[in-house]
Amino acid sequence: MDGRPSILMCLALLAASTVAAAGSAAPAPVESAATAPRQSGARLAPGGVLVAWQERSGEDTRVVVYALDSGQIKRSFAIDRAMQLRSLRWADDATLLATVSSSRPAADGAAGRTEYFRTLALDPAAGTIRMLLMGDGMRSLVTGATLIAVHTAEPKTVIMSTLDLGGAGQPAAGDARQVAGAEDPGWASTLFEVDTGTGRGVALERGSPTTDQWLVDATGHAVARSDFDRARHSYTLSVRTANGWQALYRRTDGKGLELCGLSRDGAAIVAIGEAAGRVRLLALPLDGTAPRVLVEDPARDVTGVLRDPANDHVVGALLGGVDGTTRWLDADAEREAGVLARAFPRRTTELIDRSGDGRKLLVRVTGTAAPPTYYLVDFATHRADIVIEE
Q1: Residue 254 near residue 233, CB atoms below 8 Å
Q2: What's 196's DSSP letter?
Q3: Which of 189, 206, 295, 362 could potentially form a cystine with 44 if both were Cys, beta carbons 3.0 to 4.6 Å apart?
Q4: What is each CA distance from 5 to 17, 71, 111, 205, in whole angstroms?
């Protein structure tokens, strides 16, 4: 599997050994349970040295970056109290992406408030914070942008999509169409390559007011997009060709597909879709040949997918039901899940992140006897060390 030159050998050694639950890599100060900061959302950087998490204490929220090699906090970022920290993800060892949101009055002056989402690039070395893409011009009025790809062929860039006004003119300050999701001819979903150092974006592809999803390949180039016209109950999945966008799949029953990514060979789109009353995981070849079913069950729907955190490849499908059954598409991922289950018996394990060389995993472990705990599983030392407890 990508990034894991000897992963199965390491997994076998880990399974055969006793997993050492060492003391917390970042020991918290001695405080009462009532005053101790709450830590959650840990993420491991690709180099396997830095771990970040969010820490809440009262009304204050901070992002903590911890260096595993030195055992020291490298940087702590304060998050404005007007914002809620939603998630963290590493773009590279020098850039931590934080998704935040804030509530504002409705754009058209009506009663109620709207949640606005932004992605911030945090630099642990310099201590700086930059907003990505959404601070420019009329995009500051849109409710948010979608992070499409974090790892591309171009260093220090990510791929994002958002509604963009293009050259259609400027709306009035109170125009309700400023809010993302409105289908107005002036606004169109647009794909951007964003520089994580400056926060500025360059438009790559412009969709339409009804475009709702984009897919890019490993280099960051657009491969597919979906358009859902709610007024006409029509759905179209289009692929990028040398001659422009061409329709690959259509529906007129008001239902569409949830695009999950590309197949490992890049030859097909992996998507969740409903047919004959059952939700299945499908592969739709880019060459236009007939879709094929990857996962289906006669009694349960596919409710989501599992991805390899190192490259976002779909490695499994989740089936509905109380048991949370997984249907695996990748043999290495299935073996790895089995090893982790044996290492933490009678508990549930969730793979959160993987180092670039595949030798370190950040795993969230839950059970009835202890709070959710993040472990750093190190195949070189055959240990599992506690990072934080929630």
Answers
A1: yes
A2: T
A3: 362
A4: 21, 28, 57, 36
Apex CA 40: angle with CA 313 and CA 17, to 5°?
65
Q: Say if CB 179 and CB 107 are below 8 A apart.
A: yes
216-275 tens-digit pLDDT: 999 999 999 999 999 999 999 999 999 999 999 999 999 999 999 999 999 999 999 998
> Domain limits of the chain?
1-25+38-127+344-390
The dihedrals phi and psi of 199, each to the nearest 5 degrees, come to: 85, -5
Contact 31, 22 (CB under 8 A): no
Structure tokens at 352: 């959160």
Compute φ and ψ for 80, nearest 5 degrees. Answer: -55, 140
DSSP 336: H
Q: What is the predicted pLDDT for the residue at 138?
A: 84
Can you tell me the distance from the alpha carbon of 105 to that of 65, in angstroms, rounded to the nearest whole number?
33
Mean pLDDT calculated for residue range 196-218 = 95
Written as six digits, the tokens of 359 are: 């030798």
- Total number of residues shown for the chain: 390
CA-based end-to-end distance of the chain? 31
